[in-house]
Amino acid sequence: MKIGAIVQARTTSTRLPKKVLKELPYGSGITILEQVIRRLKKSKLLDEIIVATTTNPEDNSIVKIAEKEGIKYFRGSEKNVLERYYQCAKENKVDIIVRITSDCPCIDWDIIDMIIEKHLQNNADYTSNTIEKRFPHGLDVEVIAFKALEKAYYEASENFEKEHVSPYIHTTNREKFKVVSVEAPDYLTAPDIRITLDTEEDYALLCAVFDYLYSQDSYFQAVDIINLFKEKPWLKLINKKVLQKKIFDSLEEELKEAKKLLELQELKRAKEIIEKWES
Fold first, then answer.
1. Is the CB of residue 194 less than 8 Å from the CB of residue 242?
2. 122 with 179: CB under 8 angstroms?
3. Predicted pLDDT of residue 243
């Protein structure tokens, strides 16, 4: 049985293009993608790490990073990420897929191993720490059995099911699968901390976190981050107004989130237009 981490990465992010090529620590010459890969190498349970990028020529830089770090890469569909994951896992004969996104440079290998162990103990189809969102944002791990991924690949029909890999398994057709949720232990419970990268504000925060912690230990872990935020709670203000990207099952849910965003930006007239349309 092969357990493999598949890291999805591309340079054409809509909110922050080329974000995975930004440096952490700032000015270090080490890209965010490299930080993710190096942290994954600390896992005791991963047999292989593969970067799954796109066939877009702009992503040649991602291939070069994979080669530099001595790991495999796969190139597939840019929009259909479910297909990219399935073909990558199939080509590399991965039995248990650990899904990691390349915008999480603080990913913790011990949390990855914790979730893999839980998945194996329960003989699950899907195991994740994102169902009950109690960990800090940016430590997200999904573990998927190949047979479940294959079923999703052949049966998923909605765009959001293909763009986000696993909604077919954990949301729209959950009754077909054995889904296991891993809850954060008390010392890792901090859902108000956001250490993922989608915006410039997120990058500023990550630069600050790495400035404080990286020189002490280049492989600092989740508990160190949480303790840092306890010591310096003002850090949360840096990206306080950034909304976490979400998957929506309906137009009503999407409009509700849109109103939150408009309110944060004080775009009151635009919000009123939506409310009038809804009524």
1. yes
2. no
3. 60
Q: Domain locations in the chain?
A: 3-188, 248-279
CATH number, domain 3-188, options 3.90.550.10, 3.40.50.970, 3.40.980.10, 1.10.10.10: 3.90.550.10
3-state secondary structure of 268: helix
Residue 49 one-letter amino acid: I
pTM of the predicted structure, to 2 decimals: 0.87
Single-letter amino acid, residue 168: Y
The total of other beta-carbon atoms located within 10 Å of residue 239's CB is 22
Structure tokens of 240? 């306080």
Question: What is d(CA 54, CA 65) in angstroms, rounded to the nearest whole number?
Answer: 14
Helices of type H across the chain: 32-40, 60-68, 81-91, 109-122, 146-155, 159-163, 167, 200-213, 222-231, 251-264, 268-278
Instruction: Summarize the confidence of residues 217-228 as an average pLDDT.
Output: 98
**What values do phi and psi take at 54, rounded to 5?**
-110, 175
Chain-centroid distance of CA 137 in Å reads: 9
Mean pLDDT taken over the chain: 92
